[in-house]
Write a structure and sequence with these properties.
Length: 709
């Protein structure tokens, strides 16, 4: 994308040029009286917005009087003229909505630029102090439904004119039967740019660590549409679901399988963890491969997973623990989660990317729950020819069949997205989808700075220098090209967040992987009981995220939720220790629920904050933030599974406490690090406050979606 300063000049409405935020002036004087100048800029925008709202309301009121006269004395020609007059109001409303959107983006960007350039979190202070003040421009104007009321009145009056020739029912009486008018579609498209998604979808999407960028231009939206295929997205989500099922379907029976092959029960840690070991390496080459193709990596993944599951199942009849481990390693080599993430980030249109990210997280959670549940159902025991089918081998056979079916579906239906060099953009395409209704004034802006003073010539030279500096800085925002260069971009705050992610993945893996051994040793649980327990844990993911994303995240800052979740994980770990003469089911189940649920909440908030403190150079490319977090989490799982196997040599009666001790130490270390770096963990809520307030002002428009023909 071109730098925002140039884009803002090109998108301005000429007759409103004096009322936009003076973005370049703010950049030049970013240290001198910044707060006061930004207050002045926002006040200028707000007062102009109020003035324009009043003018639009006045025009609608006058047209309403004419409409009332026409209802008493109908005249077809005058009705058509009146409809055109209403549409002219609609065109001006679109201009005003774009004015608001462009200024909101300018304010967000200038605050981000201040924070980034001077390393001071000014954004949170500025927006919090201004929004909570009784005379706040934001509170007085943007958190009300003025613009929404204008849209509602405009839509209703157009609908009444449409119905003038027949029924006199209002659109409020028959909202579902309301016909369409092109200008209302344009208005709704403008409103949608300010209201992309709900808090719950945003919270779920944060788990995926998939970049949510600024609203794209019309050309960029056209490129996104050419890349996007719903079936291809669905195939990526199914791949995510099946891989998570494949990961957890063996957990309830891994200890029994290892015993049947002559190994100790605690070797289940190696069996489960071998998949994670291979994933450490597969994530890198799949991420690199996705730079060139999405289809071929998914095909390769499906084939490798099919072979890996076949070997896992055959290991029983071959009586070979080595074959079993090779099968699990192959399954890990088929982990295409990096491809799934990249597809959503690069190929799904921005307007539905958050929903797709939430779908990615939901597919993962559902797979985590379905894996153990499916294992609990596979309790048969029979032979077919020379092959044994029992609770140990059936997970392998079932997943092999599932991956074979998926491979066939993938081969038939997947559509490889077009690359940037292959995308065709029609010549002269405008910046909006409503060129037939909106005048050229909306498409063509100014090519000179705003609010020039007597120092015009000097300012123009300064602007040129700033633009050159901004363009030169593009090189410093190129993606990292190696793990080493990516590591150099990790600030202390990012490192703390990755430590937290390592901790929560370690604690969850210890809990899940050793569950069959612990419950068998202390409670004599059957495979079905362990499967039900693990499935229930997995099913808590979405309800908990719904509560946190919808309610708790609106009541507290992300960093506060982060620290509270870490403390709750610590409480769950401490409560899990076996320190008395007896170890009861209520103690184990309660402590497991506290640990697992708290870790799930912590994961969402952790990845949200990680995306805010991580360098923009880690947003794209092979060595991106998603890959780094995946590697940290996968390494944690490997260490946890290795700990289980090593601790098993001390005896099953000591396994629980020995494996919990590292979890306790790492959790305490992460809490100390969080407290130390607490002030540097700023959420993106304050940064997005301006647009969120505008979104609230237009909520009624999103609900009505009024369209007239």
């Amino acid at each position: 994308m071109v730098n925002f300063g140039k884009k803002m000049m090109s998108d301005q409405v000429e007759e409103w040029k004096g009322y936009y935020i003076n973005y370049k002036l703010m950049k030049k004087r970013i240290l001198k009286d910044f707060s006061r100048m930004l207050d002045d800029q926002i006040e200028k925008i707000v007062l102009f917005l109020l003035e324009q709202q009043g003018l639009l309301a006045s025009r609608i009121e006058k047209l309403g009087k004419q409409r009332a006269i026409l209802f008493e004395q109908p005249d077809i020609s005058r009705i058509s003229e009146l409809r055109e007059a209403y549409r002219a109001v609609g065109q001006d409303l679109v201009k005003l909505l774009r004015f608001v959107d462009l200024n909101a983006t300018g304010i967000r960007k200038i605050l981000k630029k201040f924070d980034k350039r001077f390393g001071y979190r000014f954004t949170d202070y500025y927006l919090t102090s201004r929004s909570n003040h009784p005379y706040s421009q934001l509170q007085q104007v943007f958190k009300q439904v003025g613009l929404g009321a204008v849209v509602g009145a405009l839509s209703r009056n157009l609908a009444d004119l449409q119905e003038c020739q027949g029924s006199y029912l209002s659109i409020y009486d028959q909202p579902s039967a309301t016909p369409k008018d092109p200008i209302i579609d344009v208005i709704n498209a403008s409103v949608d740019k300010l209201t992309r998604s709900t808090n719950f979808l945003r919270f779920l999407g944060q788990h995926a660590l998939i970049t949510q960028e600024e609203v794209p231009s019309a050309d960029e939206e056209q490129i996104e549409e050419q890349r996007y295929s719903f079936i291809s997205l669905l195939l990526n989500l199914v791949n995510t679901f099946l891989y998570m099922v494949n990961t957890y379907i063996i957990v309830p029976t891994a200890d029994d399988y290892s015993v049947s092959l002559g190994a100790p029960a605690t070797v289940c840690g190696v069996i489960i963890g071998s998949m994670a070991v291979a994933q450490i390496f597969s994530s890198v080459y799949f991420s690199a491969w996705s730079n060139k193709s999405y289809f071929r990596p998914l095909v390769f993944s499906s084939i490798v997973l099919f072979l890996g599951n076949v070997l896992y199942a055959l290991a029983y009849d071959m009586n070979s623990i080595v074959i079993l481990l090779i099968g699990r390693l192959l399954c890990g080599m088929g982990s295409a989660r990096a491809v799934n993430r990249r597809y959503i980030s690069d190929c799904v249109p921005s307007k539905i990317r958050m929903q797709a990210s939430a779908g990615f997280v939901s597919a993962s959670a559902l797979g985590m729950a379905c894996g153990p549940a499916l294992a609990g159902l596979l309790q048969s025991n029979f032979k077919l020819y020379a092959f044994t089918f029992n609770e140990d081998t059936l997970p392998g056979w079932v997943m092999a069949f599932a991956w074979l079916a998926y491979l066939i579906w993938l081969w038939i239906s997947f559509k490889e997205p077009v690359r940037d060099t292959e995308v065709n953009i029609p010549e002269g395409s405008g910046s909006g989808s409503a060129g037939h209704v909106v005048t050229d004034e909306l498409e063509n802006g100014l090519a000179q700075p705003l609010l020039l003073s007597s120092e015009d010539k000097q300012n123009e030279d300064d602007d040129h220098d700033i633009d050159e500096s901004e363009e030169a800085s593009e090189d410093s925002r190129k993606p990292a090209t190696s793990l080493r260069s990516a590591y150099r971009l990790l600030t202390p705050s990012v490192k703390v967040q990755l430590l937290i992610y390592f901790m929560l993945k370690y604690a969850m893996e210890i809990l899940l992987s050793e569950s069959s051994v612990i419950t068998g040793h202390y409670f004599r649980w059957t495979t079905s009981s362990v499967a039900i327990f693990l499935a229930v844990l997995g099913l808590t993911v979405l309800p908990v995220n719904a509560v946190v994303g919808t309610y708790i995240s609106n009541m507290f800052e992300d960093r506060q939720i982060l620290l509270a979740s870490e403390i709750m994980v610590l409480v769950g770990i401490i409560f899990s220790f076996h320190v008395t003469s007896s170890y009861t089911v209520p103690q184990y189940v309660t402590s497991a629920l506290i640990t697992f649920v708290s870790a799930e909440v912590l994961e969402g908030v952790n990845l949200s904050l990680l995306s805010n403190v991580m360098s923009s150079r880690l947003a794209r490319g092979t060595y991106n933030g998603g890959l780094l977090s995946t590697e940290a989490g996968t390494f944690a799982r490997v260490v946890a599974d290795g700990t289980i196997t090593l601790a098993g040599y001390l005896g099953e009666d000591k396994l629980l406490n020995v494996t919990l001790l590292p979890s306790l130490v790492i959790c305490v270390a992460s809490i100390v690090a969080t407290v130390y770096r607490f002030d540097s963990f700023m959420s993106n809520k304050s940064l997005k406050y301006f647009c969120d307030a505008l979104a609230e002002a237009l909520d009624c428009v999103q609900l009505q979606k009024l369209v007239i023909d």
